[in-house]
From TrEMBL:
Name of the coding gene: Sod2
Protein name: Superoxide dismutase
Cofactor(s) needed by this chain: Mn(2+)
Enzyme Commission number(s) from the entry: 1.15.1.1
Species assigned in the record: Vidua chalybeata (Village indigobird)
Superkingdom of the organism of origin: Eukaryota
Length: 224
């Protein structure tokens, strides 16, 4: 019927743009580190950084490209079953890529200390003090069972900072709605070679290389 045709045409028009983007998309690539592998020593050693970036992050990127290719084929065939079955791999590898891309910029050889300006004001407003915030984020990160991440995020609806933990490679924004500002990787591959199974020692050390300029700039951007 004419009614069905009009309805179908409208819904097709909505699908054309996203499908077109997917078909012509660029492959994901491993971002360069903004510093040398050994630049964060003694807090995170060069061997960890090299393996973490060139092996672990690279694997997430490669797997994400493979999964997206399969997803594109399933979309083209209208194969919803395959699309659904690919979701966990998309979440895991996509999350791994998103999380690490943020993580590298959250760290700096010139990091440490305390943030300044608007971010510091927001931390004091939402956590009482910087020391209190640091203690809370450390405790949440230490408490992650198995593998995962501790995050400082921005709740846009409430206009405030929030601390959250994510399991495995679950991306913060995609799973909680919070905009990621600062992520702390507590997978064993992020610290085991240097700190063995003592996660609290790694978490104590990482505060010396937190890039507050990067976190502040993320905060300023998401408030716009």
């Amino acid at each position: 019927s004419i009614f069905f045709f009009v309805l179908f045409s409208r819904s097709s028009a909505k699908l054309v743009a996203p499908l077109g983007c997917l078909v012509s998309r660029q492959k994901h690539t491993l971002p360069d580190l903004p510093y040398d592998y050994g630049a964060l020593e003694p807090h995170i050693n060069a061997e960890i950084m090299q393996l973490h970036h060139s092996k672990h992050h690279a694997t997430y990127v490669n797997n994400l490209n493979v999964v997206e290719e399969k997803y594109k084929e399933a979309l083209a065939k209208g194969d919803v079953t395959t699309q659904v079955s690919l979701q966990p791999a998309l979440k895991f590898n996509g999350g791994g890529h998103i999380n690490h891309t943020i993580f590298w910029t959250n760290l700096s050889p010139n990091g440490g200390g305390e943030p300044k300006g608007e971010l510091m004001e927001a931390i004091k407003r939402d956590f009482g003090s910087f020391a209190n915030f640091k203690e809370k984020l450390t405790a949440v990160s230490v408490g992650v069972q198995g593998s995962g991440w501790g995050w400082l995020g921005y709740n846009k609806e409430q206009g405030r900072l929030q601390i959250a933990a994510c399991a495995n490679q679950d991306p913060l924004q995609g799973t909680t709605g919070l905009i990621p500002l600062l992520g702390i990787d507590v997978w064993e591959h992020a610290y085991y070679l240097q700190y063995k199974n003592v996660r609290p020692d790694y978490l104590k050390a990482i505060w010396n290389v937190i890039n507050w300029e990067n976190v502040s700039s993320r905060y300023a951007t998401c408030k716009k």
